[in-house]
Amino acid sequence: MPTLALIHTVDWYGQSVLEPFGKPWLAANPDVKAINIMDDSLLTESLAHGGPTPRVIKRMLFYILAAEAAGADVIMCSCTTMGVATERAKGLVDVPVFNIDEPMARDAVRAGRRLGVLATVPTSAPATRRLLEKEARAAGQEIEIQTVIEEPPFRALLSGDRAAHDKLVHAAMDQLAKQVDVIVLGQISLAQIRHNPGVPVLEVGHSGFAEARRLLDRDSRR
Fold first, then answer.
1. What is the Cα–Cα distance from 217 to 222, expressed in whole angstroms?
2. DSSP label at 181?
3. How many CB atoms within 10 Å of residue 69?
4. Following DSSP, what letter does each residue of 45-81 receive, concatenated?
């Protein structure tokens, strides 16, 4: 059975990744098995140091190698902050490895020139910016990026107040929409937001799992 390995960096990955995106996707793809690897110290250490440290990157590489050893045919990391580690791992294993935000970034650079990145975790914003710049270079596109980091919504989410989280994010989206062509939601915890600020809004959830399906199908034809 084709196997997708998911690597998570928060212990509440069930409510942010599996319940809204993973389980519906698995129900629609009953031929696929999913395995989950979680280490919440990865994001905690990254937040304390402004990004992934060498030790964080090393642990990520070990988890990706472990996922391959466990039989994964495709490996997806659900944390935007870990993009640099995921990129380094691509040459170490014989199966596709990607970050959940990569397909979103490809869509974003095709959707507009002025891109607004909205993040509620400080380390997510620079990671998303680097990814957008990389995809723009690959596509030969010129882009402008405006980044907004709103930490209060994330604190509200951690305290269990989803309504306050969403209200704060909606307000930030409305302000950002006045200055950009496209809004990019820079992490999986924002992917359940349903709000129309007047410009296209791209999130990482469904597009990441769609990419996993594409990669599983591609490799099965080889």
1. 9
2. S
3. 9
4. HHHHHTS--HHHHHHHHHHHHHHHHTT-SEEEE--GG
Q: What value does the CA radius of gyration of the chain take, rounded to a whole number of Å?
A: 17
Helix axes of 54-69 and 41-49: crossing angle, nearest 10 degrees: 160
- What would the pLDDT profile of 53-107 be if each residue is shown by its tens digit? 999 999 999 999 999 999 999 999 999 999 999 999 988 999 999 999 999 999 9
Nearest residue to 67 via CA among 43, 86, 47, 44: 86
- On whether both 35 and 126 belong to a single domain, the answer is no
Q: Could you read off the pLDDT of 149-207 as tens digits, one per residue?
A: 999 999 999 999 999 999 999 999 999 999 999 999 988 999 999 999 999 999 999 99
Compute CA 33 distance to the chain's CA centroid, rounded to the nearest angstrom.
20
Side-chain-facing half-sphere of 194: CA atoms under 13 Å:
2
Cβ burial of 43 (10 Å; 0-12, 13-18, 19+) is buried
Q: In the chain, how many domains are there?
A: 2
Give me the domain span that covers residue 130: 102-203
**Among 85, 76, 29, 36, residue whose Cα is nearest residue 56:** 85
